[in-house]
Predict the structure.
Amino acid sequence: MEEKRKAAVSAVGLVKDGDIVGLGTGSTARYAILELGKKIEKEELDILGIPTSKATEALAKKCGIPLTTLQEYEVIDIDIDGADQVDSDLNLIKGGGGAHTREKIVASCSKRLVIIVDDSKLVKKLNIPVPVEVLPFSWKPTASKIKELGANPIIRQTDDNREYITDNKNFILDCDFGLIKDPRKLEKELNEVIGVIENGIFAGFTCEVHVGSKKGVNILK
């Protein structure tokens, strides 16, 4: 999709020689990884990437991006990632690709989180189901406790009706809260539920959002 590619090109333009770069997961982040591979080849950039999923790791290697880990570099210069929704305060819902736990860890280690989306992802208030990664051992009681917070949790499944398994070997509950009035509060409440690993609300993480549209790229800060 051209709008996603435009946003990706804009964000990748921020990467400088010597940077440690967080590599997001998902269809929009894929464009950024492809562009970063081209930029490395064209400009002979000396950078290292930290992937947020096995799929991203495989694509980055294919694109010739040298990789490292958080064990080697605890501080990331710039993290480029996509989002499923962005509200007017730049809070996010992520996790459609099932990688939000690793994505949030990488974001928390980054000096600068740059989100790339097309303009269809912008909303005034977050309102889509929140992905919540949970331990398989106790997913049903965990779902019941999340339901007490006002959600309708549904376990994510694959096309062949099996439980979706994350790279961390956990399950995901997609939890519909309707309109989310206070993302920061809900993010905290979800992570206080025993059995929850991490949820897909990113409140207060974003430095800027590069929004691709037919007209070009708009940068929100």
Notes: The first strand starts at residue 20 and ends at 23. The chain has six helices and 13 strands. The mean pLDDT is 97.
